[in-house]
Design goal:
The structure holds two protein chains of two kinds.
Chain A (H helix, E strand, L loop, with lengths): L2 H39 L2 E4 L16 E5 L26 H8 L3 E6 L35 H8 L5 E6 L5 H7 L2 E4 L22 E6 L2 H11 L12 H18 L7 E5 L9 H16 L3 E5 L7 H16 L23 H12 L2 H14 L5 H21 L24 E5 L11 H6 L2 H4 L5 H6 L3 E5 L16 E6 L4 H15 L1
Parallel strand pairs in A: 2-3, 2-4, 7-8, 7-9
Antiparallel strand pairs in A: 1-3, 4-6, 5-6, 5-10, 9-11, 10-11
Helix pairs in contact in A: 8-10, 8-11
Chain B lengths: L30 E12 L39 H13 L3 E2 L2 E2 L2 E4 L9 E4 L6 E8 L7 E12 L3 E5 L4 E5 L6 E7 L6 H18 L11 E11 L8 E6 L2 H21 L8 E6 L4 E7 L9 E2 L6 E2 L2 H9 L5 H11 L7 H12 L13 H9 L8 H4 L5 H18 L11 H12 L5 H13 L6 H7 L11 H4 L29 H10 L9 H13 L1 H8 L5 H13 L6 H19 L1
Parallel strand pairs in B: 12-13
Antiparallel strand pairs in B: 1-10, 1-11, 2-6, 3-16, 4-5, 4-15, 6-7, 7-10, 8-9, 11-12, 13-14
Classes of the chains: A alpha/beta, B alpha+beta.
Pfam families (chain B): GatB_N (PF02934), GatB_Yqey (PF02637)
Protein name (chain B): Glutamyl-tRNA(Gln) amidotransferase subunit B, mitochondrial
EC number (chain B): 6.3.5.-
């Protein structure tokens, strides 16, 4: 061996051992960053304790990203927080996980959630509830169903996290935990990234991004924004481009200050359940926006009051279908039937596994969904709910200045009529701040836990992009409750994801 | 997108239409039988309906063609295979259906181990095509029109086999997710025989369209039959469905049994109607048996599939498929007769060709299957020999080709228990043999030997080389320079090329072709002068070695003996000699010597 080669080799060795050390210390740091806080917050259910060190290149290089536990990963289990799938490891990575990795991000672990994404408080989990990291001395809910993802970001355990949003499951926990939660347009990235997301209600499921600020959420969104021809419901490229072009024209006409931005305030989004602690700060935001040059337009979305009922019928019906495969035979933990069971009836074999494997909330929704699809109830429930869903979409299409490129209806000429006049809608993300975990037994007993979703569900039904951005500290009308985060949501027409995030950033700047 | 109007599934009220007039059946006089058939035909696509995995044949190793989607792994999504849609559209157009510009997919739910996801994706509410018809040809009777209610796309299930020894069900997911067409007829059939003709006609159409194997025994075509009976002049009775009939014979037997059963019930229970139920068929007793009654019918909880949007079929796509629609068997026959009018005298052979063609392996995704008709056409048009097109002015005599194809090639294959699909000869190889015969480079007898040899020893070798290797090249031949140099045969370039065809050519057995006719007229002239010295020598040898036969001939007692002596020469020449010429030489040698004697 020639001397210079020897020297080179030594140098490389030294370098690589330095890298290995760096890797080791990164791992140690990750452990410290994740394991200790997780003991109280319970955001992660599985940690990648020796994650591949992130690449130095790629648009997400150096970012640590957590992934909700209903998104398939081949290195870590995908339990969906269900006893049913407690040992399940997927043979593939979900598209969104592949995209994270190929963009240079490190997947640090899987986050807690409500079982199969069904819940608004992240209390229906085999792994136990997530504790809102905002203040763990007074345990409060992190929101659901992507509670673990929101809490992990809020606690600084990762830079961003993927969640899924079916009826508000990204925006609600973002609001409760004081982070940014973005649900893209259905069929834009959401559906292409949804290959590998364990279905809850396919016509609503979206992959969403939770981040500490809008900028990082946008970065992750951009990385996921690649067309995947595998996804049957992904919007075709030409539709996406039309919508993007339209949105960016509007965006550039607004300029960097966004003066003249027309913001609609939907009057139906202030139900009686909306707490005073939310209304007051929201008013202040509107005033600030007005000062910035935004045009505030009161609008009406008259079908909003039916949204929650429609959502629960449709989502439950789809859930009853999607979860049929977990029978202990195809998928899921098998429970041996008792010796007295009549095995000649197939249902008896499945029933035991399904009764024990699914939690109460999942069972409740599957029963509701099964009923809604039964021959006698189908017309009055499922079809009726679909009609309501169309009315809700029509409501939105009436108020937005841009046409809905994704709808089956022929896009109008986009003329600026009196009714169709706003760029985005603005409303509180949730009816309240994070509820206490200790009173959940009581909350569960009535329907008020479902009311949590009342403000987020319409955008899901209509497939629209929506971001929840935390407000800064505001004076609250209610004494002693000033600290808990409040989120405000921006909703845009289909395909205006970047416009929505831009407005989100504007709100963020106001809060600072 | 989310709104749709629905009809209740399986509308139970059936408006009676009298598309068919009552016809007495001696088996059940005074009773009318009404039959409707639901057929599930497996699409002959390379890949499954909603996943990338390959479809399987029964020979494939179990669970070898399974993607995560087929196994219903959580998180997987369906994507429509447009090839499957095209195949279904072809079928729909062949059955004169109206194709829906927008059709939808629905989930049909039930728990069973052959259904990994717990639901089957089908088209319950808005099927791909509706309102078609299939005309049945009944011998000696006017054709019957059977209305096709609808054609829908759906997934096949996995295959479940129960092992009674271990008391376990074994699941093979190879079939799971394979595309099926459900073809539903209106209740327009009136007897087991008509039902049989319906299924056979449908089978023929599917095969002609290349959309399905239509093989009932292998399960690529399965039938559920709805049967009801009523007294003449009364409204139709309550129907019973007989499920999973896997041969036409069983289906007809099942209908017959069901008719008698329902008839007995109605006679012993006057005033009652037959209880609606689903029945199975026992293949050993030829009887139907109770599976479940209407009350036990499962609620499939149909739901629009939220992952698959509307299946939109453009008019231009329909038109493209219509324009490239393969011909139906009858159309194909007419087409061939139009294209090759000479075949009008050879209809029997043509029917053999068409029949063989109909048993061809169906190509995947509607790709052209290399059937017997195509083989025939390639040969007729000389498409097998692009480099030699100049030689043969790119066409061959269709009668000559058809004769060799149906008599010799198919005959040889059949003699070895093979079918046309296992024919190892490329059109190029077979075409060469035909050309060798036609150019009289080899005799018909040699050609048959050569054909047999090449079938028994399949290789890519061309026929000329093989014939040369086997010393089959006619010694009189000079037309090919590549042959004249063979060392084993004396060059016969000094000899004139005979102007006629070899005797053994089967095509000489008919007189329909002008080519053949001319060969006969020219053969009437003696042509002993063309016989090469080698063959002359064989003739002399024959006369010296078969003195008894020669003697018989010389005394004029039997002409038949001459054939024996010719056969001797042919054997000696290994079939290369021209039998007519040999006959001439022998006659000359024998009778001339007789004359000399006198």
């Amino acid at each position: 061996m020639r001397p210079n080669v020897v020297a080179q080799t030594r140098y490389i060795r030294r370098l690589s051992s330095r890298r290995a050390q760096a890797h080791y210390s990164t791992q140690q740091a990750l452990r410290q960053q994740l394991v200790e806080p997780n003991a109280t917050v319970n955001a992660f259910v599985n940690l990648a304790l020796s994650p591949k060190i992130s690449q130095q290149t790629g648009r997400l290089a150096g970012l640590n990203i957590a992934v909700k536990d209903n998104i398939a990963t081949k290195e870590l289990p995908t339990t969906c927080s269900s006893a049913m799938l407690k040992d399940f490891v997927s043979p593939f990575d979900a598209t969104c996980v592949q995209l994270l990795k190929s963009s240079g991000a490190t997947v640090v672990g899987k986050t807690n959630c409500d079982e199969f994404g069904m819940g608004s408080l992240n209390i229906h989990s085999i792994h136990g509830p997530v504790v809102n990291p905002f203040d763990t001395t007074d345990p409060r809910s992190a929101g659901g169903s992507s509670g673990g993802s929101a809490a992990a970001v809020a606690a600084g355990m990762c830079d961003a996290a993927l969640g899924t949003d079916t009826g508000g499951s990204v925006r609600l926990p973002a609001s409760y935990c004081g982070v940014v939660g973005f649900k893209p347009s259905y069929g834009l990235i959401s559906r292409q990234a949804v290959w590998g997301v364990v279905s809850y209600a396919d016509s609503l499921d979206c992959v969403g991004v939770l981040g500490s600020d809008v900028a990082i959420s946008l970065r992750v969104f951009e990385a996921l924004c690649e067309y995947d021809p595998r996804d049957p419901t992904a919007a075709p490229p030409e539709i996406r481009e039309d919508a993007f072009a339209h949105a960016s024209t509007r965006l550039s006409s607004l300029g960097s200050e966004m003066t003249g931005l027309r913001i609609g305030i939907p009057q139906e989004y202030f139900p009686k359940e909306l707490s005073q602690e939310v209304i007051e700060p929201f008013r202040q935001v509107i005033l600030q926006l007005k000062e910035q040059g935004a045009i505030i337009v009161p609008v009406s979305l008259p079908s909003t009051s039916y949204a929650l009922s429609s959502y629960y019928v449709l989502a439950s019906a789809e859930a009853s279908s999607n979860l049929a495969r977990y029978d202990g035979i195809q998928y899921g933990s098998y429970v041996r039937p008792s010796p007295s069971t009549d095995l000649s009836i197939t249902a008896n074999v499945y029933a035991q596994s399904r009764s024990q494997g699914f939690g109460a909330e999942v069972q409740k929704r599957m029963l509701l969904g099964t009923y809604a699809l039964s021959a006698d109830a189908f017309d009055n429930y499922f079809l009726q709910a679909q009609r309501v869903r169309q009315m809700i979409k029509n409501d939105f299409d009436r108020v937005f200045s841009m046409s809905n490129y994704f709808s089956d209806a022929v896009p109008s000429d986009g003329s600026f009529t009196a009714a169709r006049q706003v760029d985005v809608l603005l409303h509180p993300s949730a009816i309240r701040t994070a509820p206490s975990l200790s009173i959940n037994e009581k909350v569960e007993a009535d329907l008020s836990s479902y009311v949590q979703d009342v403000l987020t569900v319409p955008a899901s039904l209509a497939g629209l992009p929506a971001v929840s951005v935390p407000l800064g500290k505001y004076e609250s009308a209610v004494k002693g409750d000033t600290r808990w985060p409040i989120g405000v949501s921006v909703v845009g027409q289909w395909g205006t994801d970047r416009l929505v995030l831009k407005v989100g950033r504007l709100l963020e700047s106001l809060a600072k | 997108m989310f709104l749709r109007r629905l009809r209740p599934p399986h509308c139970s009220v059936r408006a009676f239409h009298d598309v068919r007039s009552y016809k007495e059946d001696t088996r059940w006089p005074g009773w009318q039988v009404i039959v409707g058939i639901e057929t599930h035909a497996q699409l002959k696509s390379r890949r499954k309906l909603f996943s990338e995995s390959l479809t399987s044949s029964l020979a494939d190793k179990i669970n070898s063609n399974v993607s995560p989607f087929d196994a219903a792994f959580p998180g997987t999504l369906p994507k429509v295979n447009s090839k499957c849609v095209d195949l279904a559209l072809r079928t729909a157009l062949a059955l004169k259906c109206q194709v829906a510009s927008r059709s939808l997919f629905d989930r049909k739910h039930y728990f069973y181990s052959d259904l990994a996801s717990g639901y089957q994706i089908t088209q319950q509410y808005a099927p791909l095509a509706k309102n078609g018809e299939l005309e049945l040809e009944i011998p000696n009777l006017p054709p019957i029109k059977v209305r096709i209610k609808q054609i829908q796309l759906e997934q096949d299930t996995a295959k479940s086999t129960f092992n009674s020894r271990t008391q376990t069900s074994n699941i093979d997911l190879n079939r799971a997710g394979t595309g099926l067409m459900e073809i539903v007829s209106e209740p327009d059939l009136r007897s087991p025989e008509e039902a049989g003709i319906y299924v056979r006609s449908l089978q023929a159409i599917l095969r002609a369209m290349g959309t399905s194997d239509g093989n009932m025994e292998q399960g690529s075509l399965r039938c559920d039959v709805n049967v009801s009976v009523n007294k003449k002049g009364e409204p139709p009775g309550t129907r019973c469905e007989i499920k999973n009939l896997n041969s036409v014979k069983f289906m007809m037997a099942a209908i017959t049994h069901e008719v008698h059963r329902q008839q007995d019930f109605l006679q012993t229970n006057p005033g009652l109607s037959v209880p609606q139920e689903t029945r199975g068929f026992n293949e050993n007793t030829f009887e139907t048996f109770h599976l479940r009654s209407k009350e036990d019918a499962p609620d499939y909880r149909y739901m629009p599939d939220p992952n698959l949007g509307a299946l939109v079929v453009s008019q231009s796509r329909i038109q493209d498929i219509r324009d490239t629609l393969p011909l139906l068997p009858a159309q194909r026959r007419a087409y061939l007769l139009r294209k090759y009018p000479a075949l009008q005298m050879k209809e029997q052979s043509l029917d053999v060709l068409l029949k063989v063609d109909n048993t061809r392996d169906i190509g995947f995704d509607g790709e052209d299957a290399r059937g017997a008709v195509e083989y025939f056409e390639v040969l007729c048009q000389g498409q097998d020999i692009p480099s030699r097109r100049d030689v043969h002015a790119n066409t061959r005599d269709p009668v000559f080709v058809l004769n060799w194809l149906t008599h010799d090639l198919l005959g040889q294959l059949a003699a070895h228990g093979q079918t046309f699909s296992s024919n190892p000869l490329t059109p190029y190889q077979f075409g060469e043999i035909l050309d060798l015969v036609k150019d009289r480079q080899i005799t018909g007898t040699s050609a048959k030997y050569l054909l047999r040899y090449m079938l028994a020893n399949p290789s890519g070798d061309n026929a000329i080389d093989t014939a040369t290797k086997l010393d089959f090249i006619n010694p009189v031949s000079v037309s090919s320079s590549s042959l004249s140099s063979t060392s084993t045969l004396p060059s016969s370039s000094s000899h004139e090329v005979p102007s006629d065809l070899a005797l053994e050519d089967p095509s000489t057995q008919n007189t329909s072709s002008s080519v053949i006719n001319s060969s006969f007229t020219s053969s009437s002239a003696p042509r002993t002068s063309n016989v090469p010295p080698e063959v002359q020598a064989f003739c002399h040898q024959a006369i010296s070695e078969l003195p008894n036969e020669v003697e018989v001939l010389r005394t004029g007692k039997s002409k038949g003996v001459l054939n024996k002596i010719v056969g001797f020469v042919m054997k000696k020449s290994r079939g290369r000699a021209d039998a007519i010429a040999v006959k001439g030489v022998l006659e000359k040698l024998i009778y001339d010597s007789v004359r000399d004697d006198q």
